[in-house]
Amino acid sequence: MKSNPQILNQKYQEALALYNKGEYLKAEGILRQLVQRAPRFVDAVHLLGVVYYLLNRHTEAESLVRKAIVIKPTSECYFNLGLIYRELNKDAEAETAFLNAIKLDPRHAKAANNLGNIELGKKNYVKAEHYYDVAIASAPKYALAYKNLGLVLRDTNQEEKAKQILQKAIQFDPNLAESYSILAGMHEKDGEFQSAIDMFKKIGNYCSAQRAARRGAIWDGLEELDKAALQSLTDSREYNFFEPWSLLNIPGLTPIQHRDIGHMFAQFKLKSALQRTPVPLAPTLPADNVLRIGYLSSDFYNHATMHLLSGILEKHNTDNFFIRLYSYSPHKNDTYTERLAALNIEIIDLSNMSDSAAAKTIAQDNLHLLVDLKGFTQNTRLEIATLRPAPVIVSWLGYPGSLGEPRLADYIIGDPVVTPVEHAEHFSETLALMPHCYQPNDDRKKIAPRPSRADQNLPEEAFVFCSFNQIMKYTPETFALWCKLLHNVPNSVLWLLSSSSVPMDNLRAEAVKNGIDPQRLIFANSLPLEQHLGRLQLADLALDTYPVGSHTTASDALWAGVPLVTRLGSLFASRVAASLLTAVGLPELVTETNEDYYQLALSLANDLARIQQLKDKLAASKTTSPLFNTEQFTRDLERLYRAIWQQHCEENAERNPIVLQSE
Fold first, then answer.
1. Which is nearest to 263 in space by CA: 293, 230, 239?
2. pTM of the full predicted structure?
3. CATH architecture of residue range(s) 5-204
4. Which of 412, 434, 523, 627 could form an S-S bond across to 429 if both were Cys, CB 3.0 to 4.6 Å?
């Protein structure tokens, strides 16, 4: 290739045409030759940098675009340099580059939008909103900026304004699927389930559509939604629009599928964090005397996690264990935050820190183990764990299953029932088994006095079945079994947790389809835990859901003295109640098929003497069962932490399942 300007420009146009067609490797070959021949041909240098960026060769891309800026600084060069820095996880440098782009072109909407994204990542919502407004002012039909602004408004509780902005995003770009997904999620949150389903289906987001259908107890067409959801995971980049926990309710989902879904979700949703270098760790302190443990969560307040965990935190041996809590919880004052405040345990507030700053803060504390209490549950910030702020990360309590991505957790705490050793392949994490049950219980949990049945709108002489699980855990098959029980136990009612009008009306209609008077469904309002446990004592028999069973709901029932019938499945989430019943000494209430589940519940409903025997046994278990021995659970948990650390420290040791024996 000669250095004739006309020939150089002709070759550049040829490369540009290939670039525009997405043939980046072919374009790269031509541009590389151009740059060798004409090192100051700024358009070629810049375009080659962009091509390297698109080929994920980010270091080379940075070098070339910086060279182009030296030759001739333009807003577009600075903008593309900012994009490259974002991929290199150099947000400070990216911010400078985008600001330089705006200096040269004050109406550079894309640069302003990306500045908003940086501020959003730092939880600086006011600044993020400002930059999105700037982007929209510069480009009034810029759909992506409207979508991002809608996200900020939603997350700052400006919901009506968010809906209006998201509608504009859809108006200006009907193909921007995330706008539909965010708006549909808001409809779902507001109880507008059919609108949410329709909008999710419009963009092919069947994973979220089945979740909304379950929350609304809209079961017509649910089987088709389930099939489409599972199929979509192999056919599309669906992972940006759902959380793996929402798929647990789909019948037939295998543990291996669930593990692999978690892995794919993490690879997509946490792509940027997974590409970052882990934060540097301080030199590890000796663990001979004091093992340093951190707990990471957004639920350190009146939440199901704290209902279970409070007693453990109070009973930790702080002479031998350094305990610190890392919280991105909402700021609340309640009984549980007061209990935490009374402890000699420091709580580090991460809520206003970026994920990187949070990880660096944790890393400075020289932990041995960081225990993530969230997993893929709502409001999680798994990016923090992705940056590996401790030598060992343990997944426990919040998420009933594997995260699928090895970088997120090294171990998962289970027990011989929820995670038997023969299920090890179901998990990307190494199993660490407690001797009795993985779920802690707080033996200080108070139970209010038992109210009268009349106070709770329950018939005085009826046999009361109950299930205080979220409605999204119900399935048509399980609900049909409950209706069959009502049919064959004539003087009986089914006591459920109330929800919005749509799912309750749908359940009443479903009862009619099954030949049951809807008056026999009695819905109870949410109450504070102490009062809820008091009223639970009015129930005769608790009925578990399937395939996602009761977790805290089950231990609440057992603590209140109500026997529970469950069905064992293959998923972690299908085995929790079985673990609780085994630990409390009632393994005979665990079944393995729908028919056995139904027959056991029916036989118990027709044997009040047996029900009373079970209640008596549960009453005695409060002082005799390992399930409710908070002190012993804490000592076992501490032994398990030491066993995990010991295995970590063994040179060239494989991470084998750890099975803790009872003492």
1. 239
2. 0.90
3. Alpha Horseshoe (1.25)
4. 412
